[in-house]
Amino acid sequence: MPAAFITGASSGLGECFAYALARRGFALVLVARRRERLQAVADRALELGAPRAEALPADLARRDDLLKLARRIEAAGPELDYLVNSAGFGTAGPLARLAGERELEQVDVNIAALVALTRTALPAMVARRRGVIINLASTAAFQPIPYMATYGATKAFVLSFSQAVAEEVANAGVTVLALCPGPTPTEFQQVAGSGRARFPSFVYSSADTVVEQGLKAAERGRVLCVVGALNRAAVQAARFAPRALVMMVERRIFGPLAVRRRA
Fold it and tell me: Which is more confidently placed, 239 or 144?
């Protein structure tokens, strides 16, 4: 039976990936920190059609937990068809005022864990010439984000890393997709404290929409999926607009109210 390993599965996009793949008949290994919440997601996945759903509590910021997960992926070996690196979080505010330890944890979860698990899953996928890795990036990956500097930089890494690895395995039957949603109503905003970033309601995509578009893009063997026509237009605009203009816009969106008034 097809099998998927999903991080960040206790809420948000990771939870939606669990349910979408359960409906497709995947056996699931679900990873997140919150044991009870994770088990509830696993139970729901079973109701939706997953033949097996294992809740595997772990903190990806802890190296011991990360090594345990890597060994679990190695043990899955030939049975692992999908790896979804959905775990991640952001922080908001001027870097000088943010907790240094939390910023390093963000790098560990958003970058180090994603690299480690991708590297662990690839050899078996390449050997059998089949497999999909979906790495959750963001439209934040396409330009610096003042007042969410670390988060934007980690997502830029995820985008670059995923596209590079996708090229390496392009002829090996393995798909590596960078999934780049824009604003999505999940717990992310609460964790990041980024309620200051105000977007009109029509900019938002639902978590289910993001997941379905990501899965369809992966099934087609795509390397990049930017969710939503407006987001795709914004990404193109950021590529060609003067950097000073891009930074001014981002500062007005993400900066504190006092900064917006001065801009």
Answer: 144
Model confidence, pTM = 0.88
List CB contacts of 120: < 8 A, sequence separation 6 or more: 70, 73, 74
Q: Write the single-letter amino acid at 220.
A: R
Burial class (CB in 10 A: 0-12, 13-18, 19+), 7: buried
Determine the average pLDDT of the residues in 176-181: 97
Q: What is the pLDDT of residue 233?
A: 81
pLDDT digits (tens, 9 = 90+) for 137-172: 999 999 899 999 999 999 999 999 999 999 999 999
Q: Beta-carbon neighbour count of residue 169 at 10 Å? A: 17
For residues 221 and 177, what is the distance between their CA atoms, to the nearest angstrom? Answer: 8
Structural domains of the chain, ranges and CATH numbers in brackets: 3-262 (3.40.50.720)
pLDDT digits (tens, 9 = 90+) for 41-73: 999 999 999 999 999 999 999 999 999 999 999
CA dist 10 and 191 (Å) reads 14
| Structure-token pair, residue 198 | 């105000």
Instruction: Indicate the SS3 state at residue 74.
Output: helix
Q: What CA–CA distance (Å, rounded) separates 156 from 235? A: 13
Q: In the annotation, is 151 catalytic? A: yes
- Position of tokens 């990501």? 214
* Integer Cα distance of 227 and 22 in angstroms: 22
Catalytic pick among 19, 82, 147, 151: 151
Order of strands across the sheet that contains 27-32: 53-57, 27-32, 3-7, 80-85, 131-136, 174-180, 224-226
